[in-house]
Amino acid sequence: MARKHAERHYAERIGWLRAAVLGANDGILSTASLVVGVASAHAERGDVLIAGVAGLVAGAMSMAAGEYVSVSSQADTEKADLAREREELETDNAFEHKELAGIYVKRGLDPELAKQVAEQLMAKDALGAHARDELGLNEIHEARPIQAAMASAVTFAVGASSPLVLAIYAPQEYLAASVSVGSLLLLGVLGGLAARAGGAGVAVGAARVMFWGAVAMAVTAGVGALFGTTV
Ligand SMILES: [Zn+2]
Asked: How many domains does the structure of the chain reveal?
């Protein structure tokens, strides 16, 4: 029992860690690409930093808005499903018994045993049993869209601040190169961490995010250089 409990908490912690690492990855990748793009257009450090800070704030706000909307709409859907289920339990309890027993038969129980299990679980907590086994809601938990939005904005901003710090201290002539290399290394570390947290190969996780980071920075550097020569 203690081990199962510990495993569930470990899984929750891993979930949060992965979300935080991925949020920070987004911050690094989008802000570093922006900084590299503007620096490749031969902009002065001050202009690069203004663009970078604007990118950090815009990115953090859009991540927060996106997270808030997605968590809220998921919570709305769950609430609506539970309300419909509650109503069905009130209006057609006999059918709901049969339905739940049917789910257990499909999972391999004998019909007689399935009927008994359905009866006992519905006697204890009918809505909980249907929510878990029919709707697939493991836990009826209170959605926290504000917390999720804040967490998403903060992890993005923390990630985004690292290419900005690099842009403050890098020599002007190597600004784009230093921000690219420094950000790619950071992405690799975080990518490896996220992979490790999810039980996947560290090297593969690091290589994957570094590859796409390099592609994103190369494309924005190219566009920046093009604009730098034409504008
Ligand atoms: Zn049902």
From this structure: 1
Assess if residue 2 is contained within a domain.
no
Within-domain flag for 157? yes
Q: What is the pTM of this model?
A: 0.77
Q: Distance, CA 162 to ligand 1 centroid (Å)? A: 50
Residue 119 CB contacts under 8 Å (≥ 6 apart), including other chains: 97
- Which residues lie at CB < 5 A from ion ligand 1? 96, 130, 134
Ligand 1 centroid to residue 110 C-alpha, Å? 20
Give the Å distances, CA to CA, from 61 to 20, 23, 156, 160: 16, 12, 9, 12
| Residue 4 lies inside a defined structural domain of this protein | no
Asked if residues 117 and 109 have their Cβ atoms less than 8 Å apart, the reply is yes
Predicted pLDDT of residue 211:
96
Query: Distance between terminal CA atoms of the chain?
Result: 67
Domain of residue 79, residue span: 12-230
